[in-house]
Structure formats: C-alpha cells, structure tokens
Write a structure and sequence with these properties.
Helix content: 40-55%
Strand content: 5-15%
Order of helices and strands: EHHEHEHEHEHEHEHEHEHEHEHEHEHH
CATH topology of the largest domain: Rossmann fold
Radius of gyration: 35 Å
Structural class: alpha/beta
Strand order of the largest sheet: 3-2-1-4-5-6-7
Shape: elongated
Number of helices: 15
Distance between the termini: 95 Å
Largest sheet: 7 strands, parallel
CATH class of the largest domain: Alpha Beta
Length: about 450
C-alpha cells in the first residue's frame, strides 16, 4: 500500500485582497487541505478580516505579518518569519511578490530547521530583472503566468548573465462554478442596473473592464465610437471606473476628449469597486481588451470567454495566448484604429460567441501548482536519502580506519624494527656464549 506524501506548505503574500482571482489563494489552500497537506498562509491582513476567516474555515493556518510592498518596515518581520519557519519546518515555501521574497531569504539565513525548505516564486508580470527582483529568482522553481512572461524572463536572465533557472508556466485559471458558460444576469440585477443607469437600456454594450490609465488603452474607445456611431446608433461604452478622479491626468484627458467630440452621452462610468463584475461581463455584447502595454494575465478576458461573451483584443502577449485557441476572431492583428473598428463592426453585425472550454480553469491551475510542490518535495527526499547514505559511508570508513592502522602500522614501523634489534641481541648473546664455552674448554 502506497502511503500519501504529506507536505507542509507556507505561502507568503503582501496582501490577500490584491489579485485574489489571479492567484487562486483560496482554491489552492482548500485543495492542499483536502489532500491532507498542511497549508499555512502568511499575509498582512488582520485576523478578523473576512478573507482570513474564509481561509481558516477552509482549514488553512493563518499568521499575520506586515510584509507590505516596498516598505522598509517589512524588515522588522524577518525574525517573526524565522520563528514561524522553525516552528513548522515547511517542505515548500511559495512567495507571491518581491518584498516577502526578500524577507524570506533574510529569515532563512539563521533559521534552525531539520532541512532547508524548497522555494517557489510566481512572476505575475513583466518585472524588471534587477536587484529588487533577485529574491524572486533565487528559488528552486519560478512559476510564470504566461508564455510571454516566460520568454521575457529567459531573455532577462541571459542579459544579466544569470544561470538557467527551473521555470514552469502555469496559466491563471477561472473557477467555472463561479463563471459558468452562458450565465445570464438575474432580472433583479438588470432592473436595478437600468434604474441606476437608464441610458444603458436597449443599447449594445462595449464593456471596458478596467480603470482608465496610460497603459490600459481607453483612448481606442473614442476611435470606435467616432467611427461606428452612425452605423450603430445604439452602441454604448461602459467603463469600470469612477466618472471623476481628482489629479489623474490620463482620466481628465480622456473625459475632455470624449466631451469635446460630443461622445459623452455614449459613455457610462460604473465605478471600479464593484462585486458584480461577472454580471457586467456576461451582459456585455463585447468585452474590450485594449491594453497598450503587453498584458501578462488578462484575467477579465478569460472570465468573459468562460461566460461565453465575445472578447476583442490586440494580438499580443496574454490576450493572444488566450484568444488564439479560444476565440481567434476576436484578435486584432494590426495595431491601429482601422483594424480595431473592422473587428468590432464584424462582431456587432454577426454575433459569434466563444465555445465552452476546459482550458484555463482553476482546477487545472491548482493541479499543476500542487504538482510543482510535489516534485520539489520528492526531490528533497531523494537529496536527503543521498546525503544520509553519504554520511553513513563516511562513518563506516571512519570506524574502519583505526583497525587498518593497528594491523599495518606495527608491521612496518614498530614490530619489524624491534624484532631486528632483538635478533641482533640474540645473535650477539649466542656468539658470546660460544666464546665462553671455548675458554672453559
């Protein structure tokens, strides 16, 4: 009968709330506990936080340490983290951002543990390959969230002349129970939405599922509205951001351009702090993925695809990796307004939805992550066994060495010379005895 290999896994995070859906914090913890492993989460969230209560309810152990990003005060957590490592003797430690990675390396320097834990890190974006990111790289396995991040990392490692690393690409996954295919918003939600935003009724929704910023590509929405409003008079843009942000240059510039071109009545801001993103994505006619900078994950595009909502995005980085296998007709090959408007026009004229898929799922992501842990755990056991065998051989040699010396050494250096001297004395004595006998005769 094969016994299960039980692991102790510690995961270090700056916070629980940031990118919850991308990291799969709760799903991974639940899966570890369900399989008999010990799951320990270390983060800055307070003990009475709802997310912490959710973790504990799933069977995870939780410890609060303030490891906030790019904060020197985080260095105060080196000793407390070292004590936690010494207490649990984890098999695997998984770090999810750079500041906790630095705290971890400092804590491990003087940690008294039975064996050093295997280290895993995840690169969620195109982090600069510099000294600050070095702590994420000094691990046994680096998990990347897309092939584009993997390629970027490998190029950066070669450029910095850093040796090859064990890299495993694991796509972020969607909980298909939370985002079921062809989900429809409830009648209550629709009535409430139309009551709050009456201008949205009987319109074609182009949902922009992110905030306004220089890197997010909201300016392309102006090109779409300007070029297609006459052909599609009911086209309407919905932006997941506030309608005003004081001191935000990109936001102010976008609003001024929209109003100057007379497109203000075709744009609705619904705010960014919402818990009904699923409903907006499923109710949309098209979800827009227009980031100017290469996207590493594209979580909103993934959610929309799993809901069966068409997504239109640039043929680059994560958007390309998602749409190419799942919804290639949503890719915009050329990076210009004419090509973008053509794809949007085609979709509005003949609606084609993404098919149901079993790719990019949370279950797949969790399995592959636990496989990484298990592989490192097995590797550690092999190393430990080899070390024990080497130590055993050395001990055997150490015990055999004195016996060999006492057998050989006296023959060459002690017994042989004494026997020679004794033989000489005996021979001399015998000679004297014969002389004395002759004299007596």
């Amino acid at each position: 009968m094969v016994t299960a290999k039980i692991m102790i896994v510690i995961r270090l995070l700056s916070s629980l709330k940031h990118d919850e859906s991308e990291r799969g914090i709760f799903h991974l913890g639940r899966a570890l506990v369900k399989n008999g492993h010990t799951s320990i989460i270390v983060s800055s969230a307070d003990e009475d936080n709802d997310l912490v209560k959710r973790l504990k309810r799933d069977g995870n152990l939780y410890h609060q340490l303030y490891m906030n990003k790019k904060s020197w005060l985080s260095l105060l957590q080196v000793a407390p983290l070292r004590r936690l490592i010494e207490k649990y003797n984890p098999d695997v430690i998984h770090v999810h951002s750079r500041t906790p990675a630095w705290i971890l390396h400092l804590a491990l320097r003087r940690a008294r543990v039975k064996r050093p834990p295997k280290l895993v890190s995840t690169m969620y974006g195109f982090y600069p390959i510099n000294k600050y990111s070095q702590a994420l790289l000094d691990v046994d396995t680096i998990i990347t969230v897309s092939d584009s991040v993997t390629d970027y990392l490998k190029k950066g490692l070669r450029r910095e002349d850093i040796g090859p690393k064990a890299i495993k690409r694991i796509y972020r996954g969607i909980d298909i129970r939370r985002y079921p295919y062809r989900h429809n918003p409830s009648v209550y939600w629709l009535r409430h939405t139309f009551a709050e935003y009456p201008e949205l009724e009987h319109k074609k929704w182009l949902v922009f599922p992110t905030i306004i910023g220089n890197e997010y590509g909201q300016e392309w929405l102006i090109d779409i509205l300007g070029n297609l409003q006459e052909q599609f008079p009911n086209i309407h843009v919905i932006i997941m951001d506030e309608d005003y942000r004081e001191g935000d240059v990109a936001h102010e510039d976008f609003r001024q351009r929209v109003n100057t071109l007379g497109l203000g009545d075709r744009v609705t801001y619904v705010g960014r702090k919402r818990n009904d993103m699923r409903e907006w994505l499923s109710a949309a006619n098209i979800v827009m993925a227009l980031a100017n900078e290469p996207e590493s994950i594209g979580i909103n595009a993934l959610q929309a695809i799993h809901l069966g909502t068409p997504v239109i995005g640039w043929d680059q980085a994560a958007f390309s990796e998602i749409l190419q296998p799942l919804y290639p007709q949503g890719l915009v090959k050329k990076y210009n307004a004419q090509a973008l408007c053509k794809v949007v026009k085609n979709q509005l004229e003949s609606v084609t939805r993404p098919e149901m898929t079993d790719k990019f799922t949370m279950r797949e992501m969790i399995k592959e992550t636990i496989d990484v842990y298990q592989s490192l755990y097995d590797e550690a056991r092999v190393e430990e066994k080899a070390l024990a065998e080497t130590y055993s051989i050395q001990r055997s040699k150490k015990h055999l060495k004195p016996i060999t010396q006492t057998t050989i050494k006296p023959i060459d250096k002690e017994i042989a010379p004494s026997e020679i001297n004794l033989a000489k004395k005996t021979a001399k004595g015998a000679s004297l005895s014969k002389t004395a006998d002759k004299e007596n005769i």
